[in-house]
């Protein structure tokens, strides 16, 4: 049955930034599909506990991915404790905007450190274990900002960080296909989360974003999670190297 290809029974998944927003929704989707899920974040406001309360196999691990070695230690710890890692979802990210001439090195280092460096390091750490076990799936969360230059906000550094995630995903997909390791990315548009609530609270920005979206609304974390489940399971077994846009049509205009 086709629906069975969306199952993840017996799989071990790691979702970074998995205690809120899009990451939490992806963790829930994977858990509902039968996976044992490890979520990581700097803090957990209760997301992992809500999943446990629903009877899912979920555990939380604290990790600050800005720290050198944190991504590698996180991946190694999951493999040590669970014996394998089948699905790696690199969702952790930060948003920052501002004119380039005012964007200092500390902000740049933080932005690139979380949005790109930690993704590269987690993928790197997962390659050998996934190869040894016969394959796996990596899913990196990018952004439409990796495709376009957003307006009205100025965010050259953020856009560049997400474009790097997209290109990393394509390059790894090419490199690792013969090892049965699939690598894809999702490019969400404007999704209602704690990270974007400040932007939506700005009437000027919210109007531009809505007016430029043919569907005339923002997306939800659950809508992104449904796509993520497809990309993390055998439902997408012949897909690798894709950057899939989910934006209500925003980038059509």
UniProtKB/TrEMBL annotation:
The protein's matches in Pfam families, at most eight in alphabetical order, are given as: adh_short_C2
Q: Which family does it belong to?
A: Belongs to the short-chain dehydrogenases/reductases (SDR) family.
Membrane spanning residue stretches = none
Top EC class per UniProt? oxidoreductase
Which InterPro entries does this entry report, sorted A to Z?
KR_dom, NAD(P)-bd_dom_sf, Sc_DH/Rdtase_CS, SDR_fam
Q: Keywords for this entry?
A: Oxidoreductase
Instruction: Return the protein name.
Output: Glucose 1-dehydrogenase
The EC number(s) attached to this protein equal 1.1.1.47
Source species: Rubellimicrobium roseum
Q: MF terms per GO, please?
A: glucose 1-dehydrogenase [NAD(P)+] activity
User: Does the keyword section mention tRNA processing?
Assistant: no
Location of the Ketoreductase domain: 11-147
């Amino acid at each position: 049955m086709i629906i069975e290809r969306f199952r993840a029974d017996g799989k071990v998944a790691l979702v970074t930034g998995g205690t809120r927003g899009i990451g939490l929704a992806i963790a829930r989707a994977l858990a509902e599909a039968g996976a044992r899920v490890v979520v990581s974040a700097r803090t957990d406001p209760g997301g992992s506990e809500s999943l446990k309360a629903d009877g899912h196999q979920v555990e939380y691990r604290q990790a600050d991915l800005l720290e050198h070695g944190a991504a590698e230690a996180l991946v190694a710890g999951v493999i040590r404790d669970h014996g394998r890692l089948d699905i790696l979802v690199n969702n952790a990210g930060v948003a920052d905007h501002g004119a380039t001439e005012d964007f200092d090195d500390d902000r740049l280092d933080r932005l690139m450190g979380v949005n790109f460096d930690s993704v590269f390091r987690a993928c790197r750490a997962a390659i050998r274990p996934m190869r040894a076990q016969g394959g796996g799936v990596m899913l990196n969360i990018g952004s439409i900002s990796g495709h376009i230059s957003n307006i009205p906000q100025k965010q050259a550094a953020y856009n560049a960080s997400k474009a790097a995630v997209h290109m990393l995903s394509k390059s790894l997909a090419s490199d690792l296909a013969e090892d049965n390791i699939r690598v894809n990315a999702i490019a969400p548009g404007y999704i209602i989360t704690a990270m974007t609530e400040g932007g939506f609270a700005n009437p000027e920005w919210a109007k531009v974003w809505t007016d430029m979206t043919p569907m005339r609304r923002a997306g939800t974390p659950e809508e992104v999670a449904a796509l993520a489940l497809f990309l993390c399971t055998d439902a997408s077994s012949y897909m690798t190297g894709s950057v899939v846009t989910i934006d209500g049509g925003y980038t059509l205009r």
